[in-house]
Amino acid sequence: MRILSIQSGVAHGYVGNRAATFPLQLLHHEVDVVNTVQLSSSTAYPRVQGFVLSPEQVEQVAAGLEGEQHYDALLSGYVPGRDGVRALGRIAQRVSKGMWLLDPVMGDHGRMYVDQDVVEEYRLLCHQADIITPNGYEAGLLLKRTLATVEEAARGAEELSRMFGVDAVVTSVEADTRIYIAGRQRDADATFVYAVQRQEANFQGTGDLFSALVLAHRSEGLEAAVVKSLASVAHIIRQPPSSVFAGGMEMDLVSPAGQEAIALGDHVSLQRYIEKIS
Looking at residue 254, what is its pLDDT? Predict the structure, then answer.
């Protein structure tokens, strides 16, 4: 596939477009990127410099691609501000695409990264997408309630799928010692749920990597895509990090072990880390 990826950009580390581009290329997809912010690193670092691109600047960059490139898929992640989300919607309407995976990045662990009006914009925008991949906190914002158990995660994925007419994958719902991921394919009769053991290590960009891999594997079916993507991410966060800083760790995507995890998500040695719940 030829993919247009619109999300955050960093000079160092693996979040946003840096977490998505190399894995997608490793899986033989062409990727063009448009950054919504350009930072020295993720905001988890003690010292971060850079700037936010205005909605007009993001649209201007995307406009240079319109008519010149045909895209089979659109991948979108962090977009700052209500006007930025609206600009993303306009870009999505103009760019020729076969599939749109929208990760409505708004917050995590009970903390919002964006203003409240962004939530309302995403409630409008999710109808245009084909796949959405909110984490448990973001799914709760969209549904106006908290998702704190595996049952609530499963119901949340089902409701989001029906509400927006999309494939819905709810990630990172923490309960007991595990993290649960629930998915519902559009027009499917059942919701699937998987679990992985919670890790103490605080790796950056795992959600961005997961969403990119789901898009890469979606042609195999939503559940198969989630299983392969989850297995890859679960294996990567069990490997030594590429670097460590005061706020967390960076994934190692480029070592032989990291590349193997990305390329072999369907291998039984990687899938031992995940458990099917329903």
Answer: 96
d(CA 126, CA 164): 6
Q: Does position 71 have pLDDT exceeding 90, yes or no?
A: yes
- Cα–Cα distance measured from residue 81 to residue 63, given in angstroms and rounded to the nearest whole number: 20
Residue 155 tokens read as: 């119901």
Using alpha carbons only, give the angle 151, 116, 153 rounded to the nearest 5 degrees: 10
Q: At 66, which CATH number?
A: 3.40.1190.20
Record the tokens describing residue 253, joined without a space.
Answer: 């995507």
For residues 210-238, average pLDDT: 96
CA distance 106 to 134: 9
pLDDT at 167 over 80: yes
Confidence check: pLDDT of 47 > 90: yes
Residue 24 is classified by DSSP as H
Cite the beta strand spans of 67-132 per DSSP E: 73-76, 99-102, 107-108, 111-112, 131-132
Q: Provide the sign of the torsion angle of the four alpha carbons 82, 86, 89, 91, taken in this order.
A: negative
Distance (Å, rounded) from C-alpha 260 to C-alpha 13? Answer: 19
Q: Which two tokens stand for residue 106?
A: 């708004």
| Euclidean distance between CA atoms 229 and 216, whole angstroms | 9
Q: Is the pTM of this model over 0.85?
A: yes
Q: Name the token pair of 223.
A: 């559940």
- Domain tally for the chain? 1
Q: Is 131 exposed, middle or buried (0-12, 13-18, 19+ CB in 10 A)?
A: buried
Residues of the domain holding 184? 2-276
Tell which residue, 204, 147, 190, 211, has the closest CA to residue 278: 190
Q: How far is CA 56 from CA 59, 90, 103, 154, in A?
A: 5, 11, 21, 38
Helical spans, DSSP H, in 27-74: 55-63
* Six token digits for residue 189: 């009769």
Judge whether residue 125 has pLDDT over 90: yes
